[in-house]
TrEMBL record:
The keyword Disulfide bond does not apply. The lineage of its organism: Bacteria, Pseudomonadati, Pseudomonadota, Alphaproteobacteria, Hyphomicrobiales. It comes from Rhizobium setariae. Keywords: Methyltransferase, Transferase. Coiled coil: none annotated. It holds the Pfam family SpoU_methylase. This is RNA methyltransferase.
Length: 287
């Protein structure tokens, strides 16, 4: 990355652009990605951290821009990410710590940030196979919860996450951070409640919903006979009646103690690993 140019110089392909000014229009456009409507308009999002950026590149996500701090100059993995970005036709920026902090909204940001094209899977392209498990989330609002669920679903071997209704954005920076890279390996789908119910009827899946009125212990549900969709409700309101009634089975997690509920990400993890238990072995981990 020795071929640098001043930030006011002309853009020439295959070069690294050096930026130190917060007022640079490229930086302003990148900072605008902190707002959902700007991410949707541009079809891009931000991932912070060298590991996340390399994970995305390894799994074939299209990178638009690579940003790294001066501390990253000369580091082999940063050099590799920059070379991959240039090869893909992307822009590489070397920036000051001040600029990187303004982009990530953190005082101590990691040294690398990537701007990637967003990727959604179409709901009606999903044709579940035997032994597949999907997680459907109704109106999930907390970015940390969503990111943790995507990470957990990836770890459990689920095939995808379906976002139902108005949910938080899986491509928000906080959500992407919480996925720890799983956003790049697990398909994410979005659907209206009507679309989800229509797909459910034709998908051949066993939709198992967690619900306070669930009459079945979640450990007793049938997770083996056909593809499973675990349907989880909104953090505050739970599942609406139309989704709850359309589920094939309603289950509940037995609890003791004074807490009246579980965090959504924890509850999803508990049920998900039970649903996948017959498919998970230590050989999967060791191998």
């Amino acid at each position: 990355m020795s071929d640098h140019r001043h930030e006011d110089g002309p853009r020439r392909p295959g070069q690294v652009k050096e930026i130190t000014s917060l007022a640079n229009p490229i930086i302003k456009d990148i900072k605008a990605l902190s707002v959902k409507k700007n991410r949707e308009a541009s079809g891009t999002f931000m991932a912070e951290g060298l590991k996340l950026v390399l994970d995305a590149l390894e799994t074939g996500w299209k990178i638009e821009t690579l940003i790294y701090s001066k501390a990253g100059q000369g580091k082999p993995l940063v050099e590799r990410a920059a070379a991959r970005t240039i090869a893909a036709g992307g822009l590489v920026l070397e920036v000051s710590e001040k600029v990187l902090s303004s982009v990530t909204h953190r005082d101590n940001p990691q040294m690398v940030v990537g701007i990637f094209k967003s990727r959604w899977q179409s709901l009606f392209d999903i044709r579940p196979k035997p032994h597949e498990t999907f997680v459907a989330l109704d109106r999930v609002r907390d970015p940390g919860n969503l990111g943790t669920i995507i990470r957990t679903a990836d770890a459990a071997g689920a095939s995808g996450v379906i976002l139902v209704g108005e949910t938080t954005d899986p491509f928000a920076l906080e959500t992407v951070r919480a996925t720890m890279g799983s956003i790049f390996s697990l398909p994410v789908t979005r659907a209206t409640p009507h679309e989800f119910l229509k797909w459910q009827k034709s998908s051949g899946t066993n939709v198992i919903a967690t619900h306070l009125k669930g009459a079945i212990d979640y450990r007793k549900a049938d997770y083996k006979s056909r593809p499973v969709v675990l349907l989880m409700g909104n953090e505050q309101a739970g599942l609406p009646d139309d989704l709850a009634e359309a589920a094939n089975v309603k289950v509940r997690i037995p609890q003791q103690g004074r807490a009246d509920s579980l965090n959504l990400a924890v509850a999803t993890g508990v049920v998900l690993f039970e649903a996948r238990r017959h498919l998970l072995t230590l050989a999967d981990i060791d191998g």
